[in-house]
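Extended Data, panel c. Modelled sequence:
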Amino acid sequence: MRDLSAVRRARYAVAAVFAVHGAVTGSFATRVPWVQDHASLGAGRLGFALAFTALGASCAMPLAGRISHRFGSRNALRGLIALWTLSLVLPSLAPNLPTLCLAMFVYGACAGMADVAMNALGVEVERRLGKSVMSGLHGMWSAGALIGSAAGTLAAHLGADARTHFLLASAVLTVLGLLSCTWVPDIQPTEDEEPPPRFALPPRSALLIGMVGFCAVFAEGASLDWSAVFLRDRLDSSATLAAASTTAFMLTMAVARIAGDAVVNRFGAVRTVRAGGVLAVLGGLLVVLAGQPAVAMGGFALMGLGIAVVVPLCFAAAGHAGPNPSQAIAGVATITYTSGLIAPSLIGGVAQATSLVVSFGVVTVLACGLTVCAGVLRSAERGGAREVSPRAAAVPGPRP
């Protein structure tokens, strides 16, 4: 019982780290207009600078496994989450395009490394508990992002300088992140364990799993960035109602992720993702055929409900698929980051050439891939509750 209590405590600690990570993202997202004005950038140049976030993450994520091997999982996460929370300050200090590109590259690199480290520990906690917890962990990330964005919205409403806002937010989140790391599992490499390579191509299993994540993140990125525009331009909605559509989509995803573990534990990863794919396709069809704002909002809500648990299950499947969880998770994360980067611009390009209806038709077609390709996530089921029982959970420590 003591061992199980320790693992549960580790689960809550990792969940808190996920929330801190999300709060940094939410804090930054609300102050992008301030950063744009401070650096005197147009929309095109701002988009170019923001692309360096994904570039930095993609370059740095493979390093997370080596850092964890060198310092142990707890110390590695402690250092990486601190780098991530402190990097929030950097974009607000950039006075022009070159410095903002550099700031976003570092910001993205810190985000990616901390992301891989905390997901790897999430997989370890899931293995020790013997049941799915990754959806709930990502739900905590979404909850943290909502809290961070709410605080950022208040700061913007009060006219606060983003440098002051980011400095205070960074200080608070750094303390919370470091405290949370006290109880995460401390996995130490064995004496004969070879350190992972600094850079390596993701294994084939991660590529297949990553493509499922690609479909989900593409739908997520398209909905987050274009749902409000769709309601305003296509359905002549008010600005308030259009903004509410995006908020509703985020809330739907957060609630679905927090509740998703119970569904996964009951029905398994594959059946859950297949059912989610059906919901996402139905949501996409509602959006495409919508003649009223309420119908489109319902479609976006269904889409969020359908894709909510897919990315957490992709990370879980990657972590269970081979002997090097960090490398596989880094591979899946790289693919999903790429999807999140190209989705908004591709939707805009298709809309420019045709219409937003056609753009979300593309999203709907990609959502079909969730149902068709869900079988590649079977490793998450094999590595989860079917192999480890709660009674076999171990106190956080060296991996056996």
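DSSP finds 16 helices and no strands in the chain. This feature is highlighted in the accompanying rendering.
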